[in-house]
Amino acid sequence: MQNQDKKHHTDNDEISIKELILKTQEYIKVIWSKKIGLIAVSLLFGAGFALKAYLKPTTYTAELTFMVNQDDGGSMGGIGAMLGQFGLGGSGGGASNFDKITEIARSGKICERTLMDSATIGGTRDLLANHIIRSYEMHEDWQEDTVLVDFLFTKPFAATKQYNIALNTLIGFFKGAKKPGIASLEFDEKSTILKISTTAIEQELSAALTKSWYDKIQVYYVLKSTEGPKKTLEELTHKADSIYLLLSGAETGLATGSDKLGIITTYDRLPTSRAGRNLQMYGAMYAEVIKNKETSDFILKSETPYFQKLDEPRLPIEEDEGLGLIVMTILGMIAGGFVFSGFVIGRILWKDLMQGE
């Protein structure tokens, strides 16, 4: 019984495969019978793809690679742990440094500072945001917007409605909102090398954006990484100065009291004894604060993040290589052939379905 069922199942499979092959041959014959339409649609799609490639503006990608000499624990974690031994506080480490750099690089604050930086492009010095507006002819898209008609940034970091709307548009264009922006950041976990790049339709604009973006990332990251330790060092410096004044006063009091010891009375010895005791106490306090201050200063200098550039964009920049007109034409013709074939097969299936009903 099992052999019969197995044979019946095999026969059904063979029939299904046979039917599939026959159906495919039938479809191919029908499509080929309409070869004029197939060729026409394929050529039409090929021409469309080629035209799109031809009209696509030339772009230039400026890349900059760099490394950060920092442990995975983070400078804040390392400094905080060592300062904690002296009762000076400090914060622990958090996410990896490279995750922090990525988040900082894509933050609105850094993007704004980059766009509000100035650069000379095409002989004109202006804010990078204005260079982008002119290069990409954004005013054409803003003509129907009563707020942004002919808008240009006159100064950075202005708190106006026009400024905020235009800035949000440019930040989305720069880092990407719903679609990829002109700026990108990559990180190689094996080599711990970071690469930032900007793709623009002008060489100078692309290079200026990439260099400015790197500078803003570096300054902000180093500033925030050392903010706590710097504050601790400032507090130790202030404390050392205060104790030094007390120590100087105690030294003066001891010297004054010693000069008066010609008149020997117990009462006259009292200020001198106090000054000596204070001098000893302030001296010990001052020595301890100075030790902590020097330790804090050493740790701050040794663990301050150091950015090292490996490669940076230099003009002239080679234009980005696309797929080319020939490749795009071939891809278009293939796409057109699939679209036409799908349409023909769809009609056949629909007709069979209607007849079956």
Provide the gyration radius in Å: 37 Å
Mass-distribution shape: elongated
Overall mean pLDDT? 75
Tally of DSSP β-strands: 6
Helix content: 55-70%
- The helix/strand series, from N terminus to C terminus, equals HHEHHHEEHHHEEHHHEH
Which stretches are low in confidence, meaning pLDDT under 50 for 5 or more residues running? 72-95
The count of domains is: 3
**Class per helix and strand makeup:** alpha+beta
Biggest sheet, spatial arrangement of strands = 4-5-1-6
How many H/I helices? 12
Question: What kind of assembly state do the chains in view correspond to?
Answer: single chain
Characterise the protein shown here.
This protein is of the alpha+beta class. It folds into three domains: 21-58 and 328-350, no CATH class; 60-226, no CATH class; 230-303. Helix content is 65%, strand content 10%. The protein has twelve helices and six strands. It has helices at residues 2-33, 35-55, 75-84, 97-105, 108-115, 128-135, 138-141, 161-175, 203-225, 227-259, 266-303, 325-356; strands spanning 60-68, 118-121, 124-127, 183-188, 193-200, 307-311. Strands 4-5-1-6 form a four-stranded antiparallel β-sheet. Strands 2-3 form a two-stranded antiparallel sheet. β4 and β5 (193-200) form a beta hairpin. 24% of the residues are buried.
